[in-house]
Amino acid sequence: MVEVIEGVSARVPIALGDRSYEVLIGEGLMTSEAAWRGLPSATSAVVVTNTVVAPLYAERLCAHLRQRYPRVECVVLPDGESHKDWASLNLIFDHLLAEHCDRKTVLVALGGGVIGDMTGFAAACYMRGVPFIQVPTTLLSQVDSSVGGKTAINHPLGKNMIGAFYQPLRVFCDIATLRTLPAREVSAGLAEVIKYGPIADAAFLDWIEAHIEDLVALKAEAVIHAVRRSCEIKAAVVSADEREGGLRAILNFGHTFGHAIEAGLGFGTWLHGEAVGAGLVMAADLSARLGLVPGDVVTRLRGLVGRAGLPVAGPALSADEYLHHMRVDKKAEAGDIRFVLIDGIGKAVVRPAPEALVRETLAACTA
Amino acid sequence: MVEVIEGVSARVPIALGDRSYEVLIGEGLMTSEAAWRGLPSATSAVVVTNTVVAPLYAERLCAHLRQRYPRVECVVLPDGESHKDWASLNLIFDHLLAEHCDRKTVLVALGGGVIGDMTGFAAACYMRGVPFIQVPTTLLSQVDSSVGGKTAINHPLGKNMIGAFYQPLRVFCDIATLRTLPAREVSAGLAEVIKYGPIADAAFLDWIEAHIEDLVALKAEAVIHAVRRSCEIKAAVVSADEREGGLRAILNFGHTFGHAIEAGLGFGTWLHGEAVGAGLVMAADLSARLGLVPGDVVTRLRGLVGRAGLPVAGPALSADEYLHHMRVDKKAEAGDIRFVLIDGIGKAVVRPAPEALVRETLAACTA
Asked: Domain end: B161, B180, B199, which one?
């Protein structure tokens, strides 16, 4: 029997032994007194955010934290994936050291996936590890990147190449923050929500199809259910494979094609979620060509991705360019391209595919 | 019953659950076929070393590794604590990424504490963690820094501020490598050996006193015993407190004074072990002033430290300067200076001390 916390609509436990924690989902959680109870004490809380999110939420969160921690600081980083690098990470370290923050400091990530990844990695490394809390403010980070403990920065030679598996103390998915998101970013987040259906839960895919307009419109009840079910599915996968030994790869359904789109166009041209949206259709198409699912599954996913406001086909890059970028994707070990595919709706498999079939998919699913 | 491995004189297990590993000690272990057996397979081994150690041992180690791994690379970093920074760490990442090293790469640290700390931290972060092996080539790293999983780089505002707890797969203490060490570095390593007596093992302190000349002369039998017993004591402490929750602090006996010496003179003026040597005497002196040990313990330690070729008193900095540097030491939480002291020989305690007594120690134990 799970205790009810005022203002918290859903709680998802992430079972990872002594690194276990909860994802709390609800409206206005960022400043809910009840939701923040029970966290360990700290000498300082340092909020890490960016220039876009800070004006919207930093003051409100810091005021709330001042009731809980003796000292509250705020570090504002430049916005965007292009700043997910050592220079920005070092801005966090500079601040922590200049302010003499000790090992009893807690970092609080306030923002989307880039802020969460960088804050988590800073927490993993600062004095060999201080605790951190996630307050994801985008749909994509609420349903995906803030859960599971993958933290990282980019290197000029590759995305997310320098990082750590490091779990937060708690994740606060305050769905009120989603209302300040541009529509394009809501759609991008929905790509990751849609992903969970084909790989793990056919009934959830049915539910998403029935509620996609409510999700696009950010209706609270629908969003809370979508975030909850997404986190539950991710939690089950992460609990079974914290360090990406194998199973966790299924969360990358659509991502091998998606990464090729991002890399081929130049990162930032399409949002990650947009590339994943088209990537889902392409991965379903390849699954169908391998005989793993009937062709109508591709039609169905294409329709849903389109209704979510996402591109349903990849951009017009050459097949060779796609293949090149898929080969250097870091999930590729020793040159092989392994794809996450679906073997019926609700079951993912990871396997290589013949290049001829991949080329057929690229011909069928790009503009 | 521990299996005997050819060429291995001693084996020290480090019990850390699924992160457990062994320290192997012996002559010529670096290229012992038997000692390297049983490590997990890898697509590449990347040796990380520096400009001083590379000409002595890199070729020999790489040739040995080529018999075990399909591909062997070597990264040579600039030498010295002043290069224990992000720029050098990034040289490792640049190399790994330029060579398309995947998650099945193993890093091999060949060198002293700086190389071990940096290689371990690079391994902790590269693609969120690849395995690594320690081949410490200094006495200090064999008896201290290569055991226990503390890895880090320095930040302009503090030493070892950015790092991780990350355990190696195995540690190879090849005592043959110590013969290329300058005498000053042998003495520096002996400071850490001596440390283990007062904090944990009165009989080991007796043994060190009886064999200090053999140790200074690097006689194999004595060195093997000293490395083994040092690693055993460190292993017991680390197993009980991997992440420095409390007990592990006793390993810093002499280090609070020592760090103040290093910081006050400018890092690199005295070797770390030299500062610890004088720091041991000062910490014993403070313990005596607090009534925890009789005064003759100070005389005894001072004599031993001197016979090891180490300074027995701190440099002539002002007491205020010592106190300033001790206060900013990162082991000081929220402003308190806590000292590791001895409560009789063989038992360490961690506690604050009245400033007046600390000033008496500084007056008595500095030049």
From this structure: B180
Q: CB neighbours of B260 closer than 8 A, spacing ≥ 6?
A: B314, B317, B321, B322, B325, B326, B329
Task: Look at residues B117, B214, B203 and name the one whose alpha carbon lies nearest to residue B166.
Answer: B117
Question: Do B188 and B160 share a structural domain?
Answer: no
Question: CATH code at B129?
Answer: 3.40.50.1970
β-sheet bridge partners, residue B74: B47
CA distance A106 to A130: 6
Is B298:B282 a contact under the CB 8 Å cutoff?
A: no
Q: If residue A356 lies in a helix (H) or strand (E), which one and from where to where?
A: helix A355-364
In the block, which residue shows the tokens 């760090």? B259
- B252 assigned to some structural domain: yes
Q: Please name the residue that has the structure tokens 């986190």.
A: A231
Task: Tell me how far apart the alpha carbons of residues B118 and A329 are, in angstroms, rounded to a whole number.
Answer: 26
Q: What are the distances in angstroms from CA A142 to CA A156, B64, B105?
A: 27, 49, 33
Using CA coordinates, name the residue in chain B closest to A117. Answer: B128
3-state secondary structure of A194: helix
- pLDDT at residue B334, rounded to an integer: 44
Question: Is B272 annotated in the active site?
Answer: yes
Contact (CB<8Å) A164/B124: yes
Residue B2: inside a domain: no
CB contact under 8 A, A98 and B157: yes
Q: For B104, which of A102, A162, A333 is closest by C-beta distance?
A: A333
Residues 6+ apart with CB under 8 A from B25: B8, B9, B10, B11, B12, B142, B173, B175, B224, B227, B228, B231
Helices then strands, each counted (H, E), chain A: 12, 11
Do residue A243 and residue B333 have CB atoms under 8 angstroms apart?
no
Same domain, B196 and B93: no
* B86: chain A residues, CB-CB within 8 Å: 86, 90
> How far does the CA of residue A351 sit from the closest CA of chain B (Å)?
18
Q: Which residue range(s) make up the domain with B35?
A: 10-180
SS3 content of chain B, % helix, strand, coil (to 5): 50, 20, 30
- Note whether B200 and B152 are same-domain residues: no
- Structural domains counted in chain B: 2
Residue at A2 is within a domain: no
Phi, psi torsion values for B173, nearest 5 degrees: -95, 95
Task: Name chain A contacts of B90, Cβ cutoff 8 Å.
Answer: 86
Closest CA to A68 of A14, A101, A108: A108
Question: What angle in degrees, to the nearest 10, is found between the helix axes of A272-289 and A295-307?
Answer: 170
Do B206 and B338 share a domain, yes or no?
Answer: yes
The closest alpha carbon to A139, from A104, A185, A204, belongs to A185
**pLDDT tens-place string over residues A221-256:** 999 999 999 999 999 999 998 888 888 999 999 999
Q: Cα(A303)–Cα(A289) distance, rounded to whole angstroms? A: 19
- Nearest-Cα distance to chain B for A11, in Å, is 28
Q: Read off the pLDDT of residues A283-330 as tens digits, 9 standing for 90 and up.
A: 999 999 999 999 999 999 999 999 999 999 999 999 999 999 988 655
Query: Do residues B341 and B298 make contact, with C-beta atoms less than 8 angstroms apart?
Result: no
Cα end-to-end span (Å), chain B: 51
Integer distance in angstroms from the first to the last C-alpha of chain A?
A: 51
Q: In whole angstroms, give the CA distance from residue B258 to residue B271.
A: 10
pLDDT at B2 over 70: no
Segment B329-350 mean pLDDT: 78
Give A-chain residues touching B71 at CB under 8 angstroms: none
